[in-house]
Write a structure and sequence with these properties.
This is 2,3-bisphosphoglycerate-dependent phosphoglycerate mutase. Keywords: Gluconeogenesis, Glycolysis, Isomerase. InterPro entries: His_Pase_superF_clade-1, His_PPase_superfam, PG/BPGM_mutase_AS, Phosphogly_mut1. The structure is a single chain. This protein is an alpha/beta fold. The chain is built from eight helices and six strands; from the N terminus they run βααβαβααααβαββ. β2, α3 and β3 form a beta-alpha-beta unit. The chain is globular and about 50 Å long. The two termini are 33 Å apart.
Length: 229
């Protein structure tokens, strides 16, 4: 039976992760720890011997830099890197830039949990659409806010039109993205019910390895251990 591999990785720790801040579509740099996590992921993937045909990442600097670190460690910087806004972190609307502990004190733990981990709950919206040249040039309007369901809806066309066809052609794929966009993808791949997705967490720099058969059915799912664990 012909097998093909997909590895998904959440970017290394960002300054916002460290400081407990909602970021969404805002660019924030990696911390020194985040850089170390990217190196550790690369070393772990090198031990597997997987040869990727393509890497896929978001339009966010923290994911792009992590991708480059990983590819450098596995000596595969030469492969194509496909960047897409569809893999961006979910847009947290008016919560963007706010400290999660402060928001929790204002609205309570239950409401914060629904905003962060629920499937259909939409965080408070911005008053107006923001503009960023990287999206304006694509004709993409930045969201006012997104639920995980909305994130999944804009992510799936990239999976169905780009990643899945390459996998079906036997081409191993690497995806480096964000906590929410990867949770949305995992929900789809693992067929997780709406009311159970709040139990899924994707830590920074902890790769997940999917092996598919020739019909793109999941044969095996492995959590790859890195040296920093």
């Amino acid at each position: 039976m012909k097998m093909v591999d997909l590895v998904i990785v959440r970017h290394g720790q960002s300054q916002a992760n460290r400081d407990n801040i909602f970021t969404g579509w805002t660019d924030v740099p990696l911390t020194p720890k985040g850089i170390e996590q990217g190196v550790a992921v690369g070393k772990a993937l090198k031990r597997t011997g997987i040869q990727f045909a393509d890497a896929n990442t978001s339009y966010m600097a923290r994911a792009i830099v992590t991708t480059n670190i990983i590819l450098g460690e596995i000596d595969q910087l030469y492969i194509p890197v496909h960047k897409t806004w569809r893999l961006n972190e979910r847009h947290y609307g008016a919560l963007s830039g706010r400290n999660k502990a402060v928001v929790k004190a204002e609205v309570g733990a239950d409401q914060l949990h629904r905003w962060r981990r629920g499937y259909t709950e939409v965080p408070p919206k911005l008053a107006h659409h923001q503009h960023d040249r990287r999206y304006d040039r694509l004709g993409v309007q930045m969201p006012l806010s997104e639920s995980l369901a909305m994130t999944q809806r804009r992510l799936l066309p990239f999976w169905q039109d780009q990643v899945a066809p390459r996998l079906l052609d036997g081409k191993n794929q690497l995806i480096v993205a964000h906590g929410s966009s990867l949770r949305a993808l995992i929900k789809y791949l693992d067929k997780i019910p709406d009311n159970e997705i709040d139990q899924v967490e994707v830590p920074n720099g902890k790769p997940i390895w999917y092996r598919f058969d020739e019909h793109l059915r999941v044969v095996k799912k492995t959590f790859i251990t890195t040296e920093d664990e």
